[in-house]
Amino acid sequence: MRDKEFFRITAILGAGAVLDFDYNDLIRPTTNNITKAVVDQKIQGLDLKDSDLIRQIYDLIVEKSRTAYLRFHPDVRFYEPPISFEDVFEVIETLYSYTGTWKSERYPFPLISSLVRSDLHFESIEYYRAMVSFIEKIVEIVDAYDTKFRTDGTEQWYKDFWKGFGGKVDVFNLNYDTTVEFSMGEYNDGFVGFTQDYERFEPGVLWNASLDCATVNHLHGCILYGDTNPRPVQYHYSHRDLYKFYSAEDVKKYFINRQWMPSNQVGDSIYYSPIITGLKKTDKICYLPHSVYHAHLVKKIIENPSLLICGYSFGDLYINQLLQRHKLIHGDNQRVVIVEKWPDYVNKDCISLYRYFEDHTSGGFREFVSRITEGGLDMLDVFKQFKQFDEGCWESSNGALRLYTKGFKYAVDNGREDIMCYLN
């Protein structure tokens, strides 16, 4: 029997958490859809003409990846490399950093840039414009569904779910929207009133949150975050701190053309913006509020034996490393609910579930499930012992894991009370 004093839940939300929303004519924020949208973005070249720089880079990445794959798998006729917008952003960000050295714009940092070269002949300012274009498009996509969520009265299932925790939940949202806080109404995200236009972040406010108040932590930023440096407090706050504005339109006035480009430990320039994308996340969470949100995640992983993981593909190594320790910390008190949206055929039997798990999930996901279920290397035997107690809902034999496979909305509509009781 678990000690009731533990009842507080850590929730980690990835892109899949909002994919059951009714988007109508909006762009659904899947990885594929966002990738297509940003790749088609044009920038203004130095000749003042539209440039398809992003498309050229994407096509080169795909071509090189396909060639490398087919060299090791010559019998494969068709192969489409799974290149995402984050991969493309990483390449553009790195090219921006290296081009500064190649063009003798600065002393040779990062050092590796003096040892490599690119066949592309764009200027660093063009790569910078491409990164701006990236962020603008992602913000536009997220703001569209976020605004719809706030104004049209739909998705009541989602709003009721978050209200149902009664404040006893710590949400770590890897998406950039504000749907969770809007659903809750009352929450603590560490931001406090500052001016009529924006709020400032106070670490102590979040750290000392009431046990009856939900916390919302945007580990990868938010469409309401912006970059500003008010003179009266320039010695009290870093010029890299982010502030929270009251609309995405306000954010556009501040951050787009005045981003700081700090360098990481090895001298790579990083594009630090209100939303964190690309593959240098661990470098970008060094600043407020992200650094405190990360520390808060560590704290809650240690404190809370109940985990809700929704729509997260386990693609962020720094988060995975924390999650892997959850079993070690909480032992038999651990309770984990994972919500995914898998094809209906996986619910046919345990073997079908196992096959999809092995063939279509990430290594980080598989390692985490192995630890929870104490399965070791023989995961097939573990899955054979899973119990299906409802359509699309499976439980491990040790009782530590419940896996919902029909999406977040289905899980909430058909099992909200079961989820709450299980995690309590």
Mean pLDDT: 90
Low-confidence stretches: none
What is the number of beta strands? 14
Strand order of the largest sheet: 7-4-1-10-11-14-13-12
H/I helix tally: 16
* Class inferred from helices and paired strands: alpha/beta
Helix-strand pattern: EHEEHHHHEHEEHEEEHHHEHHEHHHEEEH
Give a short account of the largest sheet: 8 strands, mixed
> If you compute it from the alpha carbons, what radius of gyration comes out, rounded to the nearest whole angstrom?
22 Å
Describe the fold and architecture.
There is one protein chain. By secondary structure, this protein is of the alpha/beta class. It has 2 domains: 4-21 and 155-341 and 407-423, no CATH class; 24-144, no CATH class. 42% of the residues lie in helices and 12% in strands. It has helices at residues 31-39, 53-72, 85-102, 124-151, 156-163, 179-184, 203-207, 248-254, 281-284, 290-303, 317-324, 326-330, 350-360, 363-373, 379-384, 408-423; strands spanning 9-13, 43-44, 50-51, 169-173, 191-193, 198-201, 215-217, 225-226, 243-245, 306-310, 335-339, 387-390, 393-395, 401-404. The strands form 3 sheets. Strands 7-4-1-10-11-14-13-12 form an 8-stranded mixed beta sheet, with helices on both faces. The protein has a 4-stranded antiparallel beta sheet with strand order 5-6-9-8. The protein has a two-stranded antiparallel ribbon with strand order 2-3. It is globular. The mean pLDDT is 90.
